[in-house]
Amino acid sequence: xxxxxxxxxxxxxxxxxxxxxxxxxxxxxxxxxxxxxxxxxxxxxxxxxxxxxxxxxxxxxxxxxxxxxxxxxxxxxxxxxxxxxxxxxxxxxxxxxxxxxxxxxxxxxxxxxxxxxxxxxxxxxxxxxxxxxxxxxxxxxxxxxxxxxxxxxxxxxxxxxxxxxxxxxxxxxxxxxxxxxxxxxxxxxxxxxxxxxxxxxxxxxxxxxxxxxxxxxxxxxxxxxxxxxxxxxxxxxxxxxxxxxxxxxxxxxxxxxxxxxxxxxxxxxxxxxxxxxxxxxxxxxxxxxx
Length: 290
Hints:
Number of helices: 9
Protein name: ATP-grasp domain-containing protein
Organism: Prauserella cavernicola
GO molecular function, one term: metal ion binding
Keywords: ATP-binding, Nucleotide-binding
Strand order of the largest sheet: 11-10-9-12-13
Helix content: 25-40%
């Protein structure tokens, strides 16, 4: 029986950024058709879809409530709407920390909360945001600029994350570990993005320098722990997470820590990892379709 998976983008990127091209071919190879749709297109009907996969909904941060309402209306959404709700506010980092997961030290600042400025360089970013928009790095001598940026984010209605910058990112970048259906697939590196950041032509995300990676054992173990903690939080099996990307950095203390966990609409690095990653994704989608 023919089955179709809808890949979901946004109005400015209705067919994503091109990374899924290989995945669509791999899905076709195992008998799964695909098409793209825009999440808030009033002419689309997602109610009877076999599977709806968030891929490039990178405009959601400006209309998160409407986006989450739409997610809740789509029964076949992956990842599921309750997972997306939790994961689209970076306050989830504090939940992970509470579960014993080492994260980059993070302060969540709501309206009126006074920041406890770390020594050295800091990162100030909105708790709800995609594509590194609104994230900025400031040196010790730029405390006034950092304070002004924090204030501007608050004035725009955002809660704010304040983190000490981890300087190893300048040398190693971030390591993104990708899982499909709860199983590890591949990893890729992302170069430092908060110095001289350039946006793609859609304006939705900062362009990145990407490369295939072979993560060290400590990174793999930490990423596995993150998936276990997340599955336990939602009372589900890991296999119910169709896709996950765990972004790990080395802290200034030399140990790995979570910078972000991406369960809503992450780039998955198919172009970096090659056809094997697309085939693994296709198998995970087939399992979802039953």
